[in-house]
Each structure stands twice: as C-alpha cells, then as structure tokens.
Design goal:
Elements lengths: L14 H12 L10 H25 L5 H22 L9 H26 L1
C-alpha cells in the first residue's frame, strides 16, 4: 500500500548543517602563501576531509529520501560543488586542478560510507 504524499516523511532541513557545509567549503577560497609545498599538500589532502563532511551532512539532511536516491544526489552534489570550486578558484589566486576534483569525489564516497555506517550503528 502506497502512502499518500501528505503522509510521506519529508527531509528535515537543518540550518546548522547547511551553515557547517558552507563554512567548510568557504575554506577553499582562502589563498595560500606562495612557495609552501607542505601547506599545499595539506590543502590538497583537506579536500578528502571536507567533502567527506559535506557528503555526511547531505546524507543527514536528506534522511527522509530513499537510500539510493540520497546516495546518487549526494555524490552528484559533491561532484558539482567540486567542479564549481575548481572553476571559480582561478579568480581567487589559486589554480584549478582535476586532481582536486578526484579528491573531492573520493571524500564524498568516504562521507557517504561513514553516513551509512553511522545509520547502521544508530539502528542497532
């Protein structure tokens, strides 16, 4: 028996989750000091952590959706945001990099995995 649209659970919108994701993404527009290779490497590694957090938060925000729909939407958002950041970065004194987009997607998959594990542990 299908539930009517009025009875279906809608995803809860949480302003703090959205604000946290925006703050994390805002860090990618801060210019780095020139010639700092270690800081550059740390910055590149941070793509994984930041996009894992973004994916985790998106999975939490879209909690009322079916799992596969949430997963596909989350990964599509991660990819879109990652590409958009790389296209905008040259205007902030940083260069665009396909390697960063790959790190973003890997981080998104990690965040999605953490969200699934979190939900599984919470359910048991």
């Amino acid at each position: 028996m299908n539930a009517s649209p009025a009875n279906q659970r809608r995803p809860e919108f949480s302003r703090w989750k959205l604000a946290a994701a925006c703050c994390l993404l805002g860090a990618f527009f801060v210019p780095l000091p020139a010639g700092s290779q270690r800081l550059d490497q740390l910055y590149n590694l941070s793509h994984l952590a930041v996009f894992a957090c973004v994916a985790f938060l998106l999975m939490q925000i879209l909690d009322g959706w079916a799992f596969w729909r949430r997963a596909v939407y989350t990964l599509a958002c991660v990819l879109t945001i990652g590409v958009a950041i790389e296209l905008i970065q040259p205007y902030f004194g940083r260069r665009a990099s396909l390697h960063d987009v790959v790190n973003d997607v890997i981080g998104g998959v990690a965040g999605l995995t953490i969200a699934v594990a979190y939900r599984w542990v919470r359910a048991t």
